[in-house]
Amino acid sequence: MRIGVMFDTEKPFDDVMGQVAALADAGIETAWASQIFALDALTTIAAAAREVPGIHFGTAVVPTYPRHPVMLAAQALTVQAASGGRLTLGIGLSHQMVIENVFGMSFDKPARHMREYLEILVPALEGEQVTFAGETLKASTFGPLQVAAPAPDVLVAALGTVMLNIAGRLATGTITWMTGPVTVEEHIIPTINVAAADAGRPVPQIGVGLPVCVTDDPAAARATAAEVFAVYGHLPSYRAMLDREGVEGPAGVAIVGSASEVADQVRRLADMGATDFCGAPFGSGDEIRASIDTLAGLAG
Question: Domain for residue 274, yes or no?
């Protein structure tokens, strides 16, 4: 399993470059960025890749609605060209409240939207001329995108059964967030694996993203997690996964404990079939550093 850590795109640009360099120096294998209302994730990765060699990059995730799939394909291939092929492209629907309130777009039938999006995005990334007319998305390119770069793996933020089936049939795999180990093992992995097998596709990549805190005070760390990650307990897609896991909120799925306890919990994910871990370290400065060091010790 490839070991990765989220970096903070809400920091000043130069500080972000320093974060990525520090992750690479520590031995972390993948630096992940989310597309929120801060630095653009893909542009930041392209810049970081030119400054920091030897580390892979991933987006977890770029929302689909604000970017036409042909444009996202061109942007992702540009990052591939800048990075020497070190990008994993994670995409997702975002959330109804964001898409409708911030962007003023319809969130009607999101699974249909993702299916149509992938029908355009994946062929465009793979150097094909695209002609597609769906119910909500259309594309008719003049030819392949003129970017000499390999297609990145495409992971879909799929949690529910319908989305996992779409990801298994049309993408490289999935990248989850705020989804605990029982749900990953009993729901995420078997559902997407069956969908991929039925479509004659390779075994999917499974990325798992969770908060991480190496600490000598687990109770305090879980209290911090409950506060820092509270919003995810109210967003419907994550709430459904927390309920399936049988926990009250984000603190219940955070990976917390001593260095050895955290390492064991991450190894459990690898044992069940996860191919990537995307850790979000939290807590005090010392706890964050200990978390990164512990994760780095699992790399390779």
Answer: no
